[in-house]
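Exercise 7b. Backbone tokens:
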């Protein structure tokens, strides 16, 4: 389904693993993580690793969720940057960003576009870098969250959750309204691999 990706030893995955319910969730930030955490059956353990091997979890249902990269980048700005003071933001998030109070979305986005993935915080790092794209059983989409999350729940437990909560949803206009043509083109290059791997485009809602 996906072209072969070369993993680097520096690629770190955040895993939520339930041995009781036999699932592995690769957490991708800004892709519904709070809502997914709420509805997944417990118990589960949460840890980060650079030494993930699918063979360690035979028979486990492995999944992740992705999101339109343009929308994900904007959500980062609206949720983490806009209206915030430096002391309100986790230091690691700003480690390689030149942040100032009142910075615009354009200022934030162009800086992210100039950062390679190994310098990016996990919230705006390319999605394909933070989970085992080739090794999962299912990749859900935030844009189809309720249907895809119910698919996951049926695969894990045979049951659905109705309704599926969508927590931390950022109230905003269409993301397309925030991008000039020039910024759209820069972000397209920055997240080219994600756009191609997960079949997203700019106008796609």
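Sequence design result:
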């Amino acid at each position: 389904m996906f072209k072969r990706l070369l993993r680097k030893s520096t690629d770190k995955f955040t895993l939520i693993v339930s041995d009781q319910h036999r699932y592995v969730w690769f957490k991708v930030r800004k892709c519904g993580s709070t809502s997914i955490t709420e509805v997944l059956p417990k118990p589960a353990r949460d840890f980060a690793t650079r030494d993930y091997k699918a063979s360690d979890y035979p028979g486990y249902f492995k999944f992740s969720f992705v999101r339109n990269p343009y929308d994900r980048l904007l959500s980062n700005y609206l949720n983490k940057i806009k209206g915030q003071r430096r002391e309100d933001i986790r230091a690691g998030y700003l480690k390689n960003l030149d942040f100032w109070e009142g910075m615009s979305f354009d200022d934030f986005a162009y800086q992210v576009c100039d950062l390679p993935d190994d310098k990016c915080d996990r919230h705006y790092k390319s999605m394909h870098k933070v989970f085992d794209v080739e090794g999962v059983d299912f990749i859900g989409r935030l844009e189809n969250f309720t249907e895809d999350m119910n698919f996951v729940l049926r695969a894990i437990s045979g049951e659905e959750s109705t309704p599926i909560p969508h927590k931390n949803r950022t109230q905003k206009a269409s993301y397309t309204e925030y991008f000039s043509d020039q910024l759209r083109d820069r972000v397209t290059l920055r997240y080219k691999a994600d756009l191609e791997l997960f079949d997203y485009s700019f106008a796609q809602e």
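Instructor comment: Residues 69-81 form the longest helix (13 residues). The first strand starts at residue 13 and ends at 18.
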